[in-house]
Amino acid sequence: MKNLDTETLTSLAIALTPPYNHTFLIFATCTIFSPMNSSLLPYYSAHFNSPPEILLRAPGRINLIGEHTDYNLGRVFPAAIDKCLYFAMSRNEQAGQVRFHAIDIPEETTFSAGSTSVSETASWAKYLQAIVVELNLRGYPVRGIDGVFGGDIPLGAGLSSSAALCCGFIYGISQLQNMPIPKREIALIAQAAEHRIGLNCGLMDQYAVLFGKKDTAICLDCKSLEFEHFPLNTGAYSLVLLNSNIKHELAAGSGYNDRRRSCENVVAAIQQKHPEVQSLRDVSVSMLETFRERLDPVDHRRAAYILRENERVLQTRTALQNGDMQQVGQILYDAHEGMRTEYEITVPEIDLLVELAHAEPGVSGARMVGGGFGGCTLNLIRTSEKELILPRMMTAYQQKTGIQPTSIEVKTADGVGRV
Fold it and tell me: What span, in angstroms and rounded, lies between the C-alpha atoms of 208 and 416?
């Protein structure tokens, strides 16, 4: 049975007499839908008394380089990964409500499908309602939806579970309601939803989640929104995440938005003499230095980091093309130092993980990944030494912090899609 596709299994289920068709469909789909086969579909069936109309997945993402450059219309280099959120969804037009369950917490929410403002209190439910608000305001009216989601993206780890939630939910609604929404528009709606609940993010995460492609990273220009799928070949090295298990919730604090305001302050100051400047993407190093005395020192330091980080994206691309993993690793270390001393978005536990990586000759480079203030480090480790290096690093980290870290093996993956 595991060799049959979803369409074939569904056809077989329809051919059977109720209630056996329902039981067969759940069993058969669970067989091929292995990441959530023990919970997602049985949970949906138990709560809504029918099989879902659609199943879909939305991946998390890593970012090789280019942190906090997206909202400055700079360059980024992310990739979708095989850690995903999975959704089971159906229409429920009679209810006129959105009824959703988060099975990993577990929590549930119910709100009007006609919502035009956010009233939910639970973090994940705020995202869903903000999306419904955005869709309704943009002329994509939402009708009743029933759904369940869960997955294996670690929460608060800097792997963009929020973008996976937003993009997956929007894509699911568009599929259910036969309401084609281009992926670029889905990205903008997801971004607007995050802004609505308080996180003024860029578009990197959404583009990675939507446009990801297996075995590639995405070279994205956040000014033009043009991108290319770049073959990701790290040769004798593996990309391994180490989760500090210091969780962050970027929308809940002011740190992320404060950094964005610093960048906007610098742009506003430079615009007084150079009105053509619309973002830090339009600012050169020499231009920034001519304004140093007019800028707050913290704002200047943060803007300088962004300019250097944009260059690191181009340097990383060239180093990967040349197969120079030592150069890639050094760029990762340089980027982390910039995040630590210039942009000031790391925490001591994350810095410790990078220090431990530095002490291992088999680690070419490491840096924090994600928006900051916790989460994971991305480590470029020689594959042949990985099984020796990781236990040493994790033991040393636990001894110094009292926190058990987690290693996360990831592979690149395709973007949002039906299962």
Answer: 9
Phi, psi of 149 (to 5 degrees): -145, 155
Q: How far apart are CA 58 and CA 82, in angstroms?
A: 9
Listing DSSP states for 120-156 in one string gives --SHHHHHHHHHHHHHHHTT-----EEEEEEESPPTT
Lowest mean pLDDT among 107-111, 128-132, 151-155, 387-391: 151-155
Same fold, 6-231 and 237-409: no
| Structure-token match 């395709």, residue found | 414
Looking at residue 417, its amino acid is G
3-state SS, residue 57: strand
**How far apart are the C-alpha atoms of 156 and 30, rounded to whole Å?**
28
Q: What is the chain's mean pLDDT, rounded?
A: 90
Beta bridge partners of 79: 62
Peptide bond into 297 cis (omega under 30): no
CA distance 338 to 183: 33
Q: 364-414 pLDDT, tens per residue?
A: 999 999 999 999 999 999 999 999 999 999 999 999 999 999 999 899 999
Are 356 and 394 contacting, i.e. CB atoms less than 8 angstroms apart?
no
Taking a C-beta distance cutoff of 8 angstroms, is the pair 62, 205 a contact? no
Pairing of strands 417-418, 54-63: antiparallel
* Positions marked active-site: 205
CA pair distance 131, 170, nearest whole angstrom: 7
Where are the extended beta strands (E) located within 20-113?
A: 54-63, 75-76, 78-91, 97-102, 107-112
Tell me the two tokens of residue 122. Answer: 């639970």
The CATH number given to 6-231 is 3.30.230.10
* Furthest C-alpha separation in the chain: 79
CATH of 237-409, one of 3.30.70.890, 3.90.600.10, 3.40.190.10, 3.40.50.1010: 3.30.70.890
CA pseudo-torsion sign 339, 344, 349, 351: positive
CA-CA distances (angstroms) from residue 292 to 32, 288, 296? 59, 6, 8
Rounded-to-integer distance, Cα 355 and Cα 366, Å: 9
**Do 93 and 144 meet the contact criterion of CB atoms below 8 Å apart?**
yes
User: What are the residue boundaries of the structural domains of the chain, listed by start?
Assistant: 6-231, 237-409
pTM reported for the whole predicted model: 0.89
Q: What are the tokens at 232?
A: 């990701």
